[in-house]
Amino acid sequence: MAGEMIVTVILCGGSGTRLWPASRENHPKQFLPLMNDFSLLQNTMRRALRVSGADASSLVVVTLAAMEDGVARQLAEIDATATNHILCEPSARNTAAAVAFAADYIHKTFGPDAFMWVLPADHHITREDILTQAFGHALASAKENNLVTF
């Protein structure tokens, strides 16, 4: 995977209602340390960077303006350069719009040859070895100009 421009995109939206009262509108579940000492967002970031080999400075996070400060704080606790590309949606329009927003930004910022890996901020994956294997297969397919989802 060396030499590839892989841009990890983390979608960090949500209304904070699913795990109420622990999560709230400006402190949704992805900010909570549910599995270990790191929040779901921080664990997602750390895992994605390990698996992809991407640099934290190229991480893109799509969030809402109301959560921008919280996202920046959480990312900076892991790596200050991870705050370089925080995109605030003009209004919440769900996953497809957030992905399109990130794709346009990546094309303009990193160029048309960058590979984009999109992940939700609130997932938990215990078998990182299987994710790494799946990522390798996905990247190989993407290099053949295929759109890959998993």
Number of helices: 4
Q: Pairing-aware structural class of the strands and helices?
A: alpha/beta
- Spatially, the strands of the biggest sheet line up as 3-2-1-4
* Strand segment tally: 4
Strand content: 5-15%
Helix and strand run: EHEHEHEH
Uncertain segments of ≥5 residues (pLDDT<50)? Answer: none
Biggest pleated-sheet summary: 4 strands, parallel
Query: How helix-rich are the residues, as a percent range?
Result: 25-40%
Overall morphology: globular
Mean pLDDT rating: 88
Radius of gyration: 15 Å
| End-to-end CA span | 19 Å
Written description of the protein model:
There is one protein chain. This protein has 150 residues and is α/β, with parallel strands linked by helices. Helix content is 37%, strand content 15%. It has four helices and four strands. A four-stranded parallel beta sheet has the order 3-2-1-4, sandwiched between helices. α1 packs across α2 (68-78). The chain is globular.
Give the secondary structure arrangement, pairings included.
Layout: E1 6-12, H1 40-52, E2 60-64, H2 68-78, E3 86-89, H3 94-110, E4 115-120, H4 128-142
Parallel strand pairs: 1-2, 1-4, 2-3
Structure in a nutshell:
With 150 residues, the chain is α/β, with parallel strands linked by helices. 37% of the residues lie in helices and 15% in strands.
Observed structural traits:
four-stranded parallel beta sheet; alpha/beta
